[in-house]
Amino acid sequence: MQLQLEAMHTAVIVQSEVTSMSKTESHKDNKFPSKFAVDFVTPLKTQDERGTCWDFATVAVLENSYRQQGIANGWLQEDEFMAISEQAYGAEILRLCAGPPGSPQQVACLIPGNEIWKNSTDGGDVTELMYLMNGLKDNIFPNSICPYIPDPGNDSVCPGEERCSPASTSCTLCPPELAMTTCCVPIHGGENYNMNGEFITSHVMNPEGGHAMTLVGYNDLYRTKQGYTGGFILKNSWFDGIHPALGPMHARGSHSLKYWLDELTDWEEASMCPNSHDPENWFQCGNTDEVVNTRRHGNGDPGMNIPLPIERSITVGGGVESCLSEETELYAKVSLQPLHLRCTDSDFCVVSDDYTYFVRNTTSWGDRMLRMCLFEYNTETKNSTELCLPPMLPQKIAYVLSPVAEEVLENDPDVCGYYFYPYEVLQQYKSQFGNFYVNNFEIEWHPQSFAANKAYFAGLDYSDVEKSTRKQNQYKFLGPFPFARIVDKKDLPSVAED
């Protein structure tokens, strides 16, 4: 009665290895190209509020190996992939880890800091694919059987899996750069990444927990906003944008694989991964004069400017008019950047549909913070005020102001979701916190796992394999302008004759 299971049979050959830092950077001695990325990586899927990064990282490897072998053998088109169920994989891990204390499966699953041995998928390890391979190789399921449930508490729930169990009766076919001065700018809940999808370091770092991601490439030449050159490209499992009002306050952004390989212009990238909630991507207008107000601070460094609290002043000279023009609106739209903002935090601005905010300018303010100045425009009275926020991280600004709904462009999960992990960041994390390692898996899929071969396996049910197989969005750019094409001669204006 293993018809459905056999349709997804895998033979897994696994080699788990810890990569030393000397090996990690060995490609710098000209034995390897300066940049590289894996082919046919599958689209982004997010773990949401569950601690299942290890699950998503493992399934990403399974999906990629399935896709590569399918394309190589002509069983899949190059733009096709099959989504594998993270929900079913996590539930199967819990089932296989069950056992009395001291049993082999308990020993293999008892990892400090995880919850698997407590029947929870919050915290796990990708190496379970190796330790439990003899149970997992016949129990990898298409996503349609068991879609991911983002709500905590559903770790072992998989409604569609029961009919595929051989034991089931219902079985069917199946930074230090800050100046030394008295400057108090509180930061709450700092993250170890910026909204550009780059992992960062800080002069104050504390461990919070672990995270698993999928290594898909590297670029020795890419330079991050923090000034680090070279790093790994990682497929992550985090959402892009900001959380809803009642969720935790994370603000995130990511990019495409080609972006981290320096193969796209920023404009081309914005047509796929616009990161509309990143304040540094908001369109600026009306910046004709300096509006950042500062004052000297006591007997400290006379060249050091200390920010005042929130400041407002009546606009002089009507600078906001340029923000209201049709031309500015057109430029912002073509640039794929939000122009009109709404206040979402009454501690800093006016929360009202009658008020629209426009970014006038931003100034870097040490340790990754920004000092943002805006026009506060009352659409009813037509009055405008200049507003300067205190210095804060872009992640905080993203929860103070937000683009109007019609100007929020969503990142395409088919191509976005990649982060950059600089070598220097890795070195600092490893030296300070330790416990960094990489696993490499060699996976072989049986031909019967592919729907293209169903004619050769007539007794198997491929319906869920077919439901979970789809096309992945593809983007092709002719030049640096993402929307431009070579104009046909018939569409060009004719030459006027005398």
TrEMBL record:
Record-linked InterPro entries: Papain-like_cys_pep_sf, Pept_his_AS
User: What Gene3D superfamilies does this protein map onto?
Assistant: Cysteine proteinases (3.90.70.10)
What's the superkingdom here?
Eukaryota
Among PROSITE patterns, the record links this protein to: THIOL_PROTEASE_HIS
* Stated name of the protein: Peptidase C1A papain C-terminal domain-containing protein
The species is: Phytophthora kernoviae 00238/432
